[in-house]
Amino acid sequence: MTGEAGRRPARVVVADDQTVVREGIVMLLGLLPGIEVVGAAGDGEEAVRLVAEVAPDVVLMDLRMPRCDGVEATRRIRVEHPETQVVVLTTFADDDSLFPALRAGARGYLTKDAGGDEILRAVESVLSGDAGLSPSIQRRLLERLSEPAPTPAPPPSEPPDGLTAREAEVLLLIAEGLSNHEIAQKLHVSTATVKTHINNLFAKIGIKDRAQAVRYAYGKGLVRPPAD
């Protein structure tokens, strides 16, 4: 993969909803030895479809995309095509993005200020069975492991803003960092049912993504921050 005789290039798909960013990443990858870009997707749904069509070794996955976000796309790819690895390449390095992506099956996590050499190392690492994490992400993981888990607040007598009891329960699980698939398993329902609950609760409380849902849960006192 790095120019050794007989080793084929790593076949990579790039998924990012911003055209300029996506084309820039594709151009950068084209300059790296040992990487062959075999497709580019504008959202998670397209990324899943491309993986089924071209069977890449690695997907470089943005997280915040329309139709199907990067976390859900990662989960689907890892379930349906376990031979394809996922490296997250995103603007965000916050816990609301990092831990759901890793739980969904991402083996690498880089921010978009990563250089070509760092991206190449991450691709090589995940294909050799290691984690492709930047040093800053590794430090954050170690810090998180040393922190106590968030403590659920005592449930209010009635969920806020017209949420049903089930919608409030789904909201708390989102705040814990669970993916749709993990929530479905925990509640013993289908992933489609979970998506319906999430769409309903997002509409009721006027939010657009999981990061906002986490902030809402903390702001309403549904989840308590970890104790010092």
From TrEMBL:
The keyword Transcription regulation applies. Residues 156-221 form the HTH luxR-type domain. PROSITE patterns: HTH_LUXR_1 (PS00622), HTH_LUXR_2 (PS50043), RESPONSE_REGULATORY (PS50110). Signal peptide: none annotated. Residues 11-127 form the Response regulatory domain. InterPro entries: CheY-like_superfamily (IPR011006), NreC/VraR/RcsB-like_REC (IPR058245), Sig_transdc_resp-reg_receiver (IPR001789), Tscrpt_reg_LuxR_C (IPR000792), WalR-like (IPR039420). The modification 4-aspartylphosphate is found at residue 62. GO terms for molecular function: DNA binding. Keywords: DNA-binding, Phosphoprotein, Transcription, Transcription regulation. It comes from the Bacteria. SMART domains: HTH_LUXR, REC. CDD domains: LuxR_C_like (cd06170), REC_NarL-like (cd17535). The keyword DNA-binding applies. GO terms for biological process: phosphorelay signal transduction system; regulation of DNA-templated transcription. This is Response regulator transcription factor. It comes from Streptomyces lasalocidi (Streptomyces lasaliensis).
